[in-house]
Structure formats: structure tokens, C-alpha cells
């Protein structure tokens, strides 16, 4: 349905997006992951025709959208990272305004507004001013505005950042229903790996403007199929013990947090005795050793060298 071909964007000589290729089939739910500055929002802006690429193309059903973006705009709903509402208007007034911009027929606009307000759980406070809403409620109005014209494609850029758990759960359930029950195609970016795991069938991982990995959850997890994941808890932490652990044969990566070490080692290798020796030689106790199943967060860290929230 949507395809990018060597899509690139340069700002002041620096490539924010560097020749990325991705595709989204009709009805799919796709996750776009990457640390801050990876190029996710720039990519979304180009796909939604808000930003013209420096090079490359965005295609809708095989046709370029760069010179003629009208077709993709008609079937696209975009939920931006920043709240895009008129705070001095009520939720209802905001939706009526956006519905008219989308050219939703007046004969069905009122019904559509009420349906969408019901969907996002804001039917009761619809006449209240948006400026009185919590951050989570504002984000739900933001999503409602993007759904008024019944888009075939919904793009959401970090829709749950900084909101309460109730609104977050409501947003996730709304997106899931839109994709699974309505057949809406979804492109979803998030700083929360568990959201992408819950909602998305395929994932693209971006870093420094490039797509560095892509595939289903199972395909991405297979990247670590030749490695073991080990969680170690220590009585205390020191830079010296971290360096000693890193030097152990068959250990490929060590990440330290507080009093724990997350270790990636060659699958099936026996590192426990060397690990105990390295730790105790610094007068530190190893209080827990646990083998773990790799997660998408581990894959992300392995590929980018950073956590998703870095």
C-alpha cells in the first residue's frame, strides 16, 4: 500500500533520514522504533506529505505521492507527537472544526463526531474546554480528530508520551480495534517497546537516519538466537568489575545499571566460574545469576548500542 524508496532528508548538510526503504501492506500494523534523533518523525512527515524529501520517493499503491500528495492526504490520518488542538474550544468544537477541514459531509458529521467521541471515551466531557483536560484526554481528542474522515491509514507519532495509565490503555485498545476490527493500516512509533510488541506485526528499527533491522518479532529475536542473555545482581557496582567482566572469553556485551549486569554471551558457553572469579577479585559478591529469554529491547540494544529511551 505504502512504500518508500531510498527516502532521504538533509537539513543543513546533515542527513536526518538516509535512503530508507520500507513498505506497509494494506491492513498491517507496523512499528517504527528508534532512539531520539533516529529520524522517525522526519520519516513520518515525509510519508504524510508534510515534508518534501531531499531524495527518494514515497509511493501509494505504486504511484508517487511527491508531486501529487492529494490522494494520500484523503486517506491518511496523522496523530502528531505534539498536541495539535485549539485549547479555547471544547472537544466537540475542535472535532467539528477538523471535520469541516476534512470536508466530511455535514449530513454525517454530527453522527461521526459522536461515534468518535464514544470510541475515545470522551462523550460526556465533549462540551468542556480542551484547556481543562488532562494530557491524556487531550491526546485522545488529538486521535479523534485524525479519525473523523475514516482514514484507511493512521500514523501515530509517540501518542502515549507523558500521559496517565488509563488514557494510555484506552489509546492502545482504540488503535488495536481500529487495526484488527476496522482493517485500518497503522504506522506506530513509540518509546515504549511493550506497546509496539502489543500492537505491531512487523517492526522497523531506525538509528542515525537508517533502517538497521526489520521484520516480525520472531525474525528480530532470531538475531540473538546464537547468544545467551544473563542477568546478574551484585552487592555493589564498580567500573573495574565491569571491565573485568567484559574481558571474559565468550562475553560479547555487558551493560551495567545500578547493581546489576545485563550480559550477552556466546550461546552455551560456560562463563559462571570466570564471572564469579572476576567479581569476587574486586571484593564484590554475586548475589543472583539468572538466564533470561531475549526481548525486543535486548535486540534493540544489541543493534543500536542504546536503549530505546536514550
From TrEMBL:
Residues spanning the membrane: none
Alphabetical keyword list: ATP-binding, Nucleotide-binding
InterPro entries: AAA+_ATPase, ABC_transporter-like_ATP-bd, ABC_transporter-like_CS, DrrA, P-loop_NTPase
Source superkingdom: Bacteria
Keyword Cell division tagged: no
DNA-binding found in the keyword field: no
ABC transporter domain segment(s): 2-233
Molecular function per GO: ATP binding
Membrane topology term: Peripheral membrane protein
Gene3D superfamilies: P-loop containing nucleotide triphosphate hydrolases
Subcellular location as annotated: Cell membrane
The family this protein is said to belong to: Belongs to the ABC transporter superfamily. Drug exporter-1 (DrugE1) (TC 3.A.1.105) family.
PANTHER family, sorted: LINEARMYCIN RESISTANCE ATP-BINDING PROTEIN LNRL
NCBIfam families assigned to the protein according to its UniProt record, in alphabetical order: drrA
Name of the protein: ABC transporter ATP-binding protein
Amino acid at each position: 500500500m505504502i512504500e518508500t524508496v531510498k527516502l532521504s532528508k538533509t537539513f543543513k548538510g546533515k542527513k536526518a533520514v538516509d535512503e530508507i526503504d520500507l513498505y506497509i501492506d494494506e491492513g498491517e500494523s507496523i512499528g517504527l522504533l528508534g532512539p531520539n534523533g533516529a529520524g522517525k518523525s522526519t520519516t513520518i512527515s515525509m510519508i504524510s506529505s508534510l515534508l518534501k524529501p531531499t531524495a527518494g520517493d514515497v509511493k501509494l499503491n505504486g504511484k508517487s505521492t511527491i508531486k501529487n500528495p492529494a490522494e494520500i492526504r484523503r486517506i491518511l490520518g496523522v496523530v502528531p507527537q505534539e498536541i495539535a488542538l485549539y485549547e479555547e474550544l471544547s472537544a466537540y468544537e475542535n472535532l467539528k472544526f477538523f471535520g469541516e477541514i476534512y470536508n466530511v459531509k455535514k449530513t454525517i458529521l454530527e453522527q461521526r463526531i459522536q461515534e468518535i467521541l464514544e470510541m475515545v471515551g470522551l462523550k460526556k466531557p465533549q462540551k468542556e474546554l480542551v484547556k481543562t483536560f488532562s494530557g491524556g484526554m487531550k491526546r485522545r481528542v488529538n486521535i479523534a480528530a485524525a479519525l473523523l474522515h475514516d482514514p484507511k491509514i493512521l500514523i501515530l507519532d509517540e501518542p502515549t508520551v507523558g500521559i496517565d495509565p488509563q488514557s494510555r490503555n484506552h489509546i492502545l485498545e482504540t488503535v488495536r480495534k481500529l487495526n484488527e476490527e476496522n482493517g485500518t493500516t497503522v504506522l506506530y512509533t513509540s518509546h515504549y517497546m511493550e506497546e509496539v510488541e502489543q500492537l505491531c506485526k512487523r517492526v522497523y528499527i531506525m538509528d542515525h537516519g537508517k533502517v538497521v533491522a526489520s521484520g516480525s518479532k520472531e525474525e528480530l529475536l532470531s538475531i540473538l538466537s546464537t547468544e545467551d542473555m544473563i542477568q546478574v545482581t551484585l552487592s555493589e557496582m564498580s567500573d573495574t568489575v565491569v571491565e573485568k567482566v567484559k574481558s571474559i572469553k565468550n562475553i560479547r556485551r555487558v551493560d551495567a545499571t545500578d547493581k546489576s549486569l545485563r550480559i550477552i554471551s556466546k550461546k552455551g558457553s560456560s562463563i559462571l566460574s570466570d564471572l564469579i572469579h572476576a567479581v569476587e577479585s574486586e571484593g564484590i559478591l554475586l548475589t543472583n545469576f539468572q538466564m533470561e529469554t531475549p526481548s525486543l529491547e535486548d535486540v534493540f540494544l544489541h543493534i543500536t548500542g542504546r536503549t530505546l529511551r536514550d
